[in-house]
Amino acid sequence: MLLSSFFQFNDQFIGIGRFWISIEKLQGFLFKILNVVFIIVIMFIMVKLGTKFIDKFIKKQSKMKVSLDVKKASTLGTLLKSILRYTVYFFGVASILTQIVGPISLTFAGIGGVAIGFAAQNFVKDIINGFFILFEDQFAVGDYIDIEDKSGIVEGIGLRLTKIRDFNGDLHLIPNGNINTVTNHSRGSIRVLVDVDIAREEDIDNVVDILNSICENFKNNDNMVDGPRVIGVTAIKEFGFTIRVVGRAKPMTQWEAENALRKEIKDNLDLHKIKVPYPKRVVIKSDSLNNV
Question: Measured between alpha carbons, how far is 33 from 21 in angstroms, rounded to an integer?
Fold first, then answer.
């Protein structure tokens, strides 16, 4: 009884409380809702299938006669996925708007196009710069880079954004259009530098011979590309002197190589009883002063 009093029906209208709705309009509204849901489902399916296709293509390209290296392939895959999402979302949203507001007149479309054009200037700039980053091979996913005051490992290069994660774990999202100067630390070998402080009373030639022997053995380290070698005395300080050891390591292994080299040097200096510099103080007791 309650429902029958709330809903009323006749041949052309449905009554809901005090309001009457045309059955034809209600059918049209429900049809639009179904179309919108259908478009959203199609968008979701296209993105999922397209992403799987791109992943398979990137994996298979390594077996082709002409193939990209792993970093470049990963970067290309990320960019293709970004292009896929933006394309599907753009046409999907346009189709949904058409369902909701109906066909847009040419005049309204022209005005809207001008407005969108002004608003999309930065977006277009981001996209164009993103393509230049990829095709000029400025950096790739996995590279360690500096972008102005931000530095970290590249996690993704999209159509509009570049994602880098710093060593604190923070993720920085940088619009491609804002990327003007890039320092890439992952191209070519990276310098390894260790400064060794030695006490003033030690024999320099003896210490250099010990360090040369250490460097000769350390050349077999998997991370090293060149050296290391002893440069010589680079500083004379109040309590001792500094001998510099340099070499070159594979990208992203320089810190591990430096740590291993420091440990090797420390262990060998201890073995040869080579002293490190430290402040020395002469303590004169008051009794000694009285005797003088």
Answer: 17
Q: How crowded is the C-beta side of 58, counted as CA atoms within 13 Å?
A: 19
**Residue 228, domain extent:** 190-271
Cα 292 from Cα 288, distance rounded (Å): 6
Burial (0-12, 13-18, 19+ Cβ within 10 Å), 12: exposed
Q: What 3 state SS string does 46-95 have?
A: HHHHHHHHHHHHHHHHCCCCCCCCHHHHHHHHHHHHHHHHHHHHHHHHHH
Rounded Cα–Cα distance for residues 123 and 281 (Å): 66
231 token code pair: 């440069």
Q: How many domains does the chain contain in total?
A: 2
Over residues 145-152, the mean pLDDT reads: 90
Query: What distance in Å separates the CA atoms of residue 237 and residue 202, rounded to the nearest whole number?
Result: 13
179, part of any domain: no
The domain that holds 216 is classified in CATH as 3.30.70.100
Is the sign of the CA dihedral 7, 8, 11, 14 positive or negative?
negative
CB distance 247 to 214 below 8 Å: no
Helices 254-271 and 204-218 sit at what angle, rounded to 10 degrees? 130
- Residue 128 structure tokens: 């164009």
Residue 215 CB coordination number (10 Å): 21
Residue type for position 100? I
pLDDT at 3 over 50: no
Summarised one tens digit per residue, pLDDT across range 97-127 is: 777 766 555 455 555 555 566 656 777 777 7
Half-sphere exposure of 36 (CA within 13 A, CB side): 14
CATH label of the domain that carries residue 74: 1.10.287.1260
User: Full-prediction pTM beyond 0.85?
Assistant: no
